[in-house]
Amino acid sequence: MDYPDTHHQDPSAPVRSGIPEHGRIPKYYAVKARISALVTELAEGEALPTERDLALRYEVARDTVRQAIRELLLEGRVRRQGRATVAAGPKLEQPLALASYTEGVRRQGRRPGRTLIGLERFPCPERLAPEVGVRAGDPVWHLERVLLADDERVGLESSYVAVERVPRLDVDFEPDSSFYAYLREEVGIGLGRAGERIETVLATPREALLIGTPPALPMLLLHRWSQDVAGRPLERVRMLFRGDRFSFSTQLDS
Asked: Are 221 and 200 in contact (CB under 8 A)?
């Protein structure tokens, strides 16, 4: 069987467009490829034809079209808007660097925002204590916020920090602003270094409700442990990002 010339294809695309060596591909995947090509011709927010119209166009069952669209939804190529399926914009690219979510989103020409879910103070559990630089039982803040990009809910952020480091967090801090900018400009704490770990997870029912996604949508979970410029533990963060709206990037040096 003759295969497409892979030397001139998009380097980010699967080799031979995902066609296995035996040349047989599932019917839904062939339909998905055709719908994907259709999506590239649409402007962001422009609606696709209905499932019924697509089934008639490609002479397949509606279940086949539905499965193809379900995968495009998970990949972030399309999104739901009311009862319609519309073309999605490019994924937000978050750098793996010691920078705030706000800075990363602004660099891509999008408007960042956050919605406060809660700010509570409680005795630090023993397992969390070394990560925020306190003893077990000392007071810590837990700041939880929904992440926004152009008013679209795209993630959920939970930050833990010692009350002694930011005693007026509940008074001086604007919940929709950058926490790192607050530390730097209002408290005088500079960020030094951080460690991060990323994994794929499914959101809990509560998280899915807050972010506004189906529980079955894959999420990117980022854990961060940060230190101040003196090397003292500062913050523990748990950030949940929609897998269909986010990607991560970093630069590697030898």
From this structure: yes
Cβ atoms of residues 244 and 90 within 8 Å: no
> What would the mean pLDDT of 223-232 be, rounded to a whole number?
93
Longest alpha-carbon distance in the chain = 69
Q: CA nearest 157: which of 180, 188, 134, 137?
A: 180
Please give the Cα distance from 152 to 143 (Å, whole number).
Answer: 20
pLDDT, tens only, 100-140:
676 767 777 778 889 999 999 999 999 999 999 999 999 99
φ and ψ of 134, to 5 deg: -135, 175
pLDDT tens per residue across span 203-223:
888 998 999 888 778 888 899
Q: Cβ of 90: how many Cβ atoms within 10 Å?
A: 10
What spatial distance separates the first Cα and last Cα of the chain, rounded to whole Å? 41
Measured CA angle at 194 (ends 117, 120), to 5 deg:
25
Q: Rounded distance, CA 61 to CA 53, Å?
A: 11
